[in-house]
Structure formats: structure tokens, C-alpha cells
Amino acid sequence: MILQIARMYMLENLRNVGVLFGNLVTPFLFIFISWIFKISSVVSEESLLFIIKGQFMSFSILLLLFQFAFSSSTIYLADLKAERTFNWIQRTDATPLKYYVGMGIGVVTLMNINLILVLLGYRLLIDIPLVSMAMIVLVSNFVLLALYPLSFILAGLFRNGKVAQSMLVPIMLVLMFSITMTTMFTSLAGKNPHDYFVFLSWNPMLYLNDIVQFNLDLIQKTWMPQYQYFLILTGLSLVLATIARKVYSIR
């Protein structure tokens, strides 16, 4: 049953061509722009590496993770609730836990396939060690664990998928740009972005972006030891999963 739920979720995402295209167009567009920069020789090699690693690649990973692990699943769950499909599913042997795990497998599978494709696309342009790629995939999955239960919480609060889609835009802007913009502007001002990370420690994207930049050799060390990031993300996932079980079931 768990694998059937995972398969159903993945098929629904693949059938919705518009949503699938929207999830993929921006990350791969950044790869295309990076390729244009590389062949045009408009910028120096050093500047090109900084643009790709520090902006395009980091943003592509953050955006891809947000869309597959958070945005799409929230809209999908909100529509299930609005159409009372989830109530019908509960009459089968698909318990809430089985559905949570099954859909999670679908989310993880889709996200990892596309994440690996994005990383391989950038690897054609710049040198990225396989060890660094593996670490980026690993931390991305831990961040997914933290964001995934949040999609159930928000889906329980929104009336339907359309409302969820409109509300997810400002949430996405806060989660992503609070990290990328802080890092960029503090670096341009000659300050250490790590001095401000304590104010952003509530954001799972912080841990992802910090480890990504470390593995791309943009920074000498992470704000906290990497194992602490993994522990925090695991604990956050368990807490949010407990809340999600209450919120989505009640609704």
C-alpha cells in the first residue's frame, strides 16, 4: 500500500505538465544562463565560478527543494482535503501513517531525480567533486525531512489548492531570500554572514545553503558543525510531524 501511494503521487505530478514544467524551468534556466556566460567569455573565469557557485547553483538547489518537497505537496494535500478524497482514502487500509510515508517516498524520489540532474548539469560547466555532490544530496534530503511535515500543517490550514498556491509565494520568498539576500549583502559589505545566522536559525534553508557553499569551496567552514545541522533538521522533522498529525487529521 505504501508503494502504491508513492506511485500514485508521482503519477499525479507527472500528469500535471504545467506544474511539472513550473517546477523544473527555473533551475534548468539558470543552467542555460550559466552556459551562455561560459561560452560568451563576458566575465572572467573567477567571476564566472562565483556567479555559478554563489548564486545560480545555490539558488537552483534551494528552489528545486522548495518546489518538490514543500510547494507541490502542500497544494496536492490541500486539494485532497477540499475534495474530501483523504476521507475516502482513510476508509481503506491506508492509515494516515502509511499515507504520510508513501507520499514521502514519492516526494523524495522526484526531488532526488531532479536534484541529481541539476547537479550533473552544473558539473558539465564547472568542476564539482563527487564527494561534494553526495554531501549536497544528503543535506538536501535532511532539509526535505524538515519541510515535508510542514506541507501537511499548511494544507490543514488552507481551504484548497488555489489558496495554498497563493499563500506559498510569500512563504517561499521569506524562506529563500532571507538566506540568500542576507548572505550576499553582508558579503558585499565585507562582513561575515555567519554573524547574522543566529537570527535565521529557524529557517531550514539556512543549513542547506551553508553546507552547499562549504562543499562548493565558497566558505572555509560552516556556521556550526555539519553533524549538528543534521541533528537539528531531524529533531525539527519529528516535532513538525507530530504537529502535522494533529492539524491535518482534525481538518
Automatic annotation (TrEMBL):
This is ABC transporter permease. Keywords: Membrane, Transmembrane, Transmembrane helix. The keyword Ribosomal protein does not apply. The chain crosses the membrane at residues 17-37, 57-78, 99-122, 128-155, 167-189, 227-248. It comes from Lysinibacillus contaminans. Signal peptide: none annotated.
